[in-house]
Amino acid sequence: MLPRFHVGPELGLSPGLACALPDGAARHVQVLRMQPGAVVHLFDGAGRTWEATVTEMGRKVVTVEVGAAVANDRELPVEVTLAMGMPANDRMDALVEKAAELGVGVIQPLVCERSVLRLDGERAAKKVAHWQAVAVAACEQSGRAVVPTVRPVSSLASWLSSEGGAALGGVHRGVLSLREAVSVQDWLDQADAVTNEPASQGGVQACADKGQRRRFVFLSGPEGGLSPQEESAALGAGWSAVSLGRRVLRADTAPLAVLSVIGARYER
């Protein structure tokens, strides 16, 4: 696979365009010691990819000529949002990276009652910018052309009362739970049945062909999990308790496990 670099949509890439790469992509090309004539892939983060040829290697500026558009079909056929109580230390970095590789669409960092990591203000904004950069790098590595969105840090209570509640009507919403809960596979069977489009009959693919991807949102807690009050608040807002099995998974494992299940179930 050719080296891939994220350039953002602002360059307005199109075949035949000659342009300078953004600073981040230019540094990557320089680190790889590429020479004029080298071919790379550029993607805008919104699903479009182009082949490009390096035409000039300066000390600070790298210019390219954009070639043909490149087909890229590496996205999940369903849209997945992970709303997560942020794990501490560097675990959130790894979680964002792996979730991006596995196909997540949106990451919502949350501060919960049991959160060790608590961010607000400028510190929170800097962390979100850092995690967004981690997601970009993961997409460059994994071949994705759509960069997941890392949303601003929010408290769980605030998020549930706005985006996590009635505003998500029609979206399949599951709380990753240790209490009595339906297995994730049975829950997905129920979600398929609601739309009368069982995965085994190609309903998900038909939905994707129409540009109407099914949407899932999963809520998971930080170290120590969600408090009983937090989980009850989500269930009272219409969420379903979903189980990933008999084992107790870490805060940075459970969201990745459910993404893996989604990918295995719906990708063909």
Query: How is the main sheet built?
Result: 8 strands, parallel
Given helix and strand content, the structural type is alpha/beta
Contiguous uncertain segments of 5+ residues: 198-211
Number of helices: 8
How would you state the average pLDDT, rounded? 89
Overall geometry: elongated
Can you count the beta strands? 13
- What's the quaternary structure here? single chain
Intertermini distance = 21 Å
As a percent range, the share of strand residues is 15-25%
Relative helix content = 25-40%
Compressed to H and E, one letter per element, the order equals: EEHEEEEHEHEEHEEHHEHEH
Radius of gyration: 20 Å
Commentary on this structure:
With 268 residues, this protein is α/β, with parallel strands linked by helices. The protein is 33% helix and 24% strand. The protein has 8 helices and 13 strands. The strands form 2 sheets. Strands 6, 7, 8, 9, 10, 11, 12 and 13 form an 8-stranded parallel sheet that branches. A 5-stranded mixed sheet has the order 1-3-4-5-2. Strand 7 (106-111), helix 3 (121-142) and strand 8 form a beta-alpha-beta unit. Helix 2 (91-102) crosses helix 3 (121-142). The radius of gyration is 20 Å and the shape is elongated. The two termini are 21 Å apart.
Brief account:
33% of the residues lie in helices and 24% in strands. It is built from eight helices and 13 strands.
